[in-house]
Amino acid sequence: MVIGASYSLLLIKRVIFGEIVHSNIRKISDVFCHEYLILFVMAFLILFMGIYPKVFTDIMHVSVENLLTHISTKKL
Predict the structure, then answer these.
(1) Please, are residues 56 and 49 in contact by the beta-carbon 8 Å criterion?
(2) What is d(CA 58, CA 52) in angstroms, rounded to the nearest whole number?
(3) CB 33 within 8 A of CB 25
(4) C-beta separation of 48 from 41 below 8 A
(5) pLDDT at site 47
(6) What is the pLDDT of residues 32-75, one digit of tens each?
(7) Chain centroid to CA 56: how far?
(8) What distance in Å separates the CA atoms of residue 69 and residue 45, rounded to the nearest whole number?
(9) How many CA atoms lie within 13 A of 39 on its CB side?
(10) Across residues 6-29, what is the average pLDDT?
(11) How far apart are CA 3 and CA 68, in angstroms?
């Protein structure tokens, strides 16, 4: 699905803007080295959050418990 979407975007870009004719623009990179580092760290954190969410849910447990207690006392 991702490959299909990226191919569709590439086709739309070529239809609307045409081929890149200037060599200076062709040399420009989409992502630089420090941006790859940031993307890698974000991807790692997202995977970690999906594989081991207990670290994040333990942080929220106290406040959610207080909220539920507050809501249950107001309705009674």
Answers:
(1) yes
(2) 11
(3) no
(4) no
(5) 95
(6) 888 999 999 999 999 999 999 998 889 888 889 999 888 888 76
(7) 17
(8) 31
(9) 7
(10) 83
(11) 43
Q: What is the length of the chain?
A: 76
76 pLDDT exceeds 60?
no
21 token code pair: 């004719």
Residue written as token pair 């249950």 = 72
Q: For residues 55 and 62, is the Cβ–Cβ distance under 8 A?
A: no
Residue 62 is encoded by which pair of tokens? 């106290």
Contact 31, 39 (CB under 8 A): yes
| The two structure tokens encoding residue 16 | 């609307």
SS3 assignment for the chain: CHHHHHHHHHHHHHHHHCCCCCHHHHCCCCCCHHHHHHHHHHHHHHHHHHHCCHHHHHHHHHHHHHHHHHHHHHHC
The tokens for 33 are 């080295």
Which tokens go with 41? 């760290």
